[in-house]
Automatic annotation (TrEMBL):
Domain of life: Bacteria
Originating organism: Azospirillum brasilense
Entry's family note: Belongs to the peptidase S41A family.
InterPro entries assigned: ClpP/crotonase-like_dom_sf, PDZ, PDZ_6, PDZ_sf, Peptidase_S41A, Tail-specific_protease
Occurrences of domain PDZ (ranges): 119-203
SMART domains in the record: PDZ, TSPc
Protein name: S41 family peptidase
Keywords: Hydrolase, Protease, Serine protease
Pfam families, per database record: PDZ_6 (PF17820), Peptidase_S41 (PF03572)
Length: 477
């Protein structure tokens, strides 16, 4: 997820827009009255009504796409009625949340209502420590289930055998189909030490898998590093408040280990679900300097350009390779797209996911939060990322990173996952295709080897290209 953290306020509306919104809200009050024993509409000071009205105002003023207040209320009322049909004992807070979730689900897959605890969890994740399972999920439009985008190494989910591409069909005794993302996440969450049983459907496996995952305090490691045959290897698992600093420290540590005699650098962004937008910009800045890195375009603001704040490249004169796959998402795509467009790096692997939108957290009354899609972002070339993703310079399949010893091999590594085409903008102009090379041109020794489970072909290809100077010869032609 690409987050613009902060607390925003809704913009003022013109009188005619306000009249239409007021009329839509009045229709909502009348519809809500049919759910109450008294059959009376909630007052305009009722906390549940205030919550709904607050969310509606934010959607109308700040969401990426213009929306009709009457259509939004129609969707919300449908959510109300469905909730009451499914649960006759649902209270007014639960009904309100269902109305809001239905309304937000009609906008895009990423917007959602956050309760106070969820807002706190997101803050904890950005700090790098939180209770949970250690996996990132997103709705799967085709199946109606939850798709696992990534399960970080050494987290409860990964240790239990959950991996990217799995579809979560059931959480404990609750079927996922029909649940909103917020409801599903709330079902998974709980205190550290408790367990959750997940029924998984795995691509290529006809037999569902049942796994039990125990929640723990997850201390995330956003940056991992090691030397790989004289080449610096840095893996970024996600972007939190520490990521940029840790990338600098990792590179400096490896320079010290080799007396600055590094042959090159590999930046691994595979299975990276994103995170803080500004951290993605800072990481790209470390290798690009003072150039445009990314731009955003929202509905209520002009194009905003984000540039590097330094004139230095920490890996100056070193060849830079970036590893991507369909789990490379959001802020990770900002980094990959900028490095490719600025001809600073070659990308190895498979096309990235294609999530080119920014979500902003709005503070609501009572401590709740609203996660709302407010902008799309574009590469320095002007190309959109949403749905198109980032195309590698060198296609290497399978692109999945093999897990550490003791975890399940990622057999679904060759299965790419991308947004449902039905959710994409049909009028979007595809970005210009990058210059490409084959494995036979840059790493023939790797290309000739048979594909083996657990062998990291993209990494081996990138290292071979750097070590044999084919990388440098290709990029200077």
């Amino acid at each position: 997820m690409l987050l613009a953290m902060g607390f925003e306020a809704a913009c003022a509306m013109l009188p005619t827009e306000r009249d239409r919104t007021d009329a839509a809200l009045e229709r909502y009050r009348v519809a809500f009255a049919t759910m109450r024993p008294s059959a009376l509409p909630p007052t305009t000071s009722d906390p549940n009504y205030v919550l709904f009205a607050d969310v509606l105002q934010h959607v109308l003023s700040s969401h990426l796409k213009p929306a009709d207040p009457e259509r939004l209320v129609d969707t919300a009322v449908a959510g109300l009625r469905k909730k009451q049909q499914d649960d006759r004992t649902a209270g007014e807070r639960a009904l309100t949340e269902s109305a809001i979730e239905a309304m937000l689900a009609s906008l895009d897959p990423y917007s959602g209502l956050l309760d106070t605890e969820h807002v706190r969890d997101i803050r904890d994740q950005m700090h790098g420590e939180f209770p949970g399972l250690g996996m990132v999920v997103t709705p799967d439009d085709r199946s109606g289930l939850l798709r696992v985008v990534s399960a970080d190494v050494n987290t409860p989910a990964a240790r239990a055998g959950v991996r990217a591409g799995d579809l979560i069909a059931r959480i404990d005794d609750r079927e996922v189909n029909g649940l909103s993302l917020h409801e599903a996440v709330m079902t998974v969450r709980g205190p550290s030490g408790g367990s959750v049983t997940l029924l998984l459907r795995r691509p290529g496996n006809d037999v569902p898998l049942l796994v039990s995952v125990t929640r723990t305090i997850v201390r995330s490691e956003p940056v991992l590093h090691r030397l790989e045959d004289g080449v610096a290897y840095i893996r970024i698992t996600h972007f939190n408040e520490q990521t940029s600093r840790l990338v600098h420290e990792a590179f400096d540590a490896m320079k010290g280990q080799t007396d600055s005699e590094l042959a090159g650098l590999v930046l691994d962004l595979r299975d990276n679900p994103g995170g803080l937008f500004e951290q993605g910009v800072r990481v790209a800045d470390a290798f690009l300097g003072a150039v445009d890195i990314v731009s955003t375009r929202g509905r209520v603001s002009d194009v905003q350009h984000y540039s590097g704040g330094t004139d230095d490249d920490v890996a100056r004169d070193l060849p830079l390779a970036v590893l991507i796959d369909s789990g490379t998402t959001s802020a990770a795509e900002v980094v990959a797209g900028a490095l490719q467009d600025r001809h600073r790096a070659l990308l190895f692997g498979e096309r990235s996911y294609g999530k080119g939108s920014v979500q902003t957290i709005f503070q609501l009354a009572g401590g709740d939060g609203l996660l709302l899609t407010t902008a799309r972002y574009f590469r320095p070339s002007g190309g959109p990322v949403e749905c198109f993703g980032i195309v590698p310079n060198v296609t290497v399949s399978p692109a999945g990173r093999p897990p550490p010893s003791g975890t399940w091999i990622r057999a679904a590594a060759s299965v790419e996952t991308h947004p449902d085409p039905a959710t994409c903008d049909p009028d979007a102009v595809a970005p210009p295709p990058p210059r490409t090379w084959t494995m036979a041109e840059l790493c023939p020794e790797v290309a000739r080897r048979p594909v083996q489970s657990g062998v990291d072909r993209p990494l081996h290809c990138a290292v071979a290209a750097i070590r044999t100077n084919r990388f440098e010869r290709a990029t200077t032609k």
